[in-house]
Amino acid sequence: MSKLIKLPMATGLPAQLEWNESLASSIALHDDLVLSDAHMEVIHYLRRCHARFGRIKNTNSLLLALETRFALHGGKQFLQSLFPRGTVTQACQLACIPMPVDIDVEIKNKRRRLHE
Prior knowledge:
Layout: H1 21-29, H2 37-53, H3 59-69, H4 75-82, H5 87-95, H6 101-114
Helix pairs in contact: 2-5
């Protein structure tokens, strides 16, 4: 079973830490995942998207962008093989960028229902 590493600011890094590939590899080890060049290509793409556009609002938009960008590698199946715990969830965690807004809303709603 994978362990979710809790980082401040959803899945972002605290201000005093700087993301690098070694950090991503360390986080991946908690999921028994060894990062390849293909993983890093996806992670760097996500980090560039986040730097350019800020926090993504919609998971489906992000998935479509990823599937389009990596279509020549196999698209959805390629991404799922790299990130078995969920393309968006696991890849965003490894990239240390915030989850899309709609995932945070869904998680908050589930937590609220559990406490009702």
